[in-house]
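seq:
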Amino acid sequence: MKDSTDSNLKLIVFGIAGLIVLAILSMAIGKYAVSPSTILAVLLSGITGDTSGIDPIQSTVIWNVRLPRVAAGLLIGASLAAAGATYQGLFRNPLVSPDILGVSAGASLGAVLAIFLEMPVPVIQASSFCGGLLAVGAVYGVGAAVRNRDPVLTLVLAGVAIGAVVGAGISLIKILADPYDQLPAITYWLLGSLTAVTRGDVGSILPAVLIGFIPLILLRWRMNVMTLGDEEAQTLGVDTRITRSALIAGATLITAASVSIAGIVGWIGLVIPHIARLLVGPDFRKLLPASIMLGGGYMLVVDTLARSIARIEIPLGILTAVVGAPFFLWLLASGRKGWS
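struct:
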């Protein structure tokens, strides 16, 4: 037990150190280049209050543009990866991603509807967040009404059905939207981006993300038992219904919060947990922190590429798909077994 604790501590320390380095490099790269030493000086001046020798333009770029974007990238990448690892364990399927229960589709419908009604950005984000929660609530409602012997299969099928209905709603709104104003905004949002993220946006999702992580962290010990199946878990004294509900609620909350400010950023919840599993194994006590840190780092790298490799910013969903789709095909072709 002591060796396992020491190993987890080393993993977390090295992971945090790596994220700090990536965060500084991400803030340094962009159309307006800033050296890492300048970034550290600006951040230190913000803490101490001593702004002597600090360029106001550089300070504005770092505090109002780069830092919020980096913080949002860390939160969103960590959240989607953690949610993906949780869903894959709960549903005992390596091809499961955070949108399995329709949370991403529901959040998209909420945002698209708000854009169609020409609502301000805060309302769009709130509508997206609520839409994701309502979609998963509908899935759970269907699952409760259909008393199937296999609750996992029931939830998956209900998620597919609700996702199809929500997808039809999104398509209908896109047809009705103004093709010169609303439709481009809807399309760009659905592709995912951190372009317009502010410090207020990060602060708005932070409470939901922290609350959502609570059950994932507290129940990480029982997650290993849940991967064995309901009958085995119940034999070992785990209340599978309550545990599954708590874990799904936490994963749904952090996914909905992420989608609400960044749009649809696919593949992270599918790819990153697999990479983490290859590095640290299937033990959820190690898999969760590894997924969190890898997800945050991966999101920083992708976002940095999105705003630096071309004259115009590339939507995040395009870049994550470029990596995720080949990985998905490899996973299908290799037929990996014993992943859990």
